[in-house]
Amino acid sequence: MKIIINADDFGYSKAVNEAIDLCMVQGLISSTTLMANMPFASEAVNRACLNKYEECIGAHITLTEGKALSRSILNCNRLVDKDGFFQIKRNSLFWFTKSERNAIKEEIDAQISWLKSKGLRISHVDSHHHIHTEFLVLILLCKVCKKYGITKIRLPLYYKSNNILIKIYKYCIKFYVFFNGFKTVDYFVDKSMLSHFEGKNVVLELMVHPIINGNRIIDSVTSESIEGINFGHLFFYDEL
Prior knowledge:
CATH architecture: Alpha-Beta Barrel
Helix content: 25-40%
Radius of gyration: 17 Å
Distance between the termini: 13 Å
Strand content: 15-25%
Order of helices and strands: EHEHEHEHHEEEE
Number of helices: 5
Strand order of the largest sheet: 4-3-2-1-6-5
CATH topology: TIM Barrel
Structural class: alpha/beta
Mean pLDDT: 93
Oligomer: single chain
């Protein structure tokens, strides 16, 4: 079993940036994905460049929180409020109009363009609240990634389910990613799922959300320690 440990939400806040920066410096995680539209995005870039891990930065596409970076989406009142802040939730809209699709594509482009303008290579792409695993968003994301030569995209979160529709949907997502020439891991998991894969010849991506709690670095979602969760050598998206 090989594990990529990726910290989501770089740029979200000063506290999150500090925790992720410490994890990268100490080698506790493989990579992190940065939210271009958050107030502390520039500080995150500065930390990455200062501590020389800018090659391990991906894009954390954000369509469900924060303020939009592009212009066309401001005219889409189902997607943003009057001040340009995102108001959609994952799985809340099952269809987008042509103007909404164009606006979402423009916004994804704007976020990636901002990261590229800061000198980041962008090793891989995922999204806030996993919004890119909605099929229409995934299609738009793939188009923008091809434009910028980005070749790695996160899969939907793995979990065991007897629901045949969920299984078919996730298979379709994985097939679409591979069919369009992108590389990815075998499974995307959280810490609770690691035991299912012990002893298996697979590559996993483990999602964490670091925050500093006293003298410990914990996951803000699970409150569990991040230290010591890797099984030996960390794997990187560039090794896929």
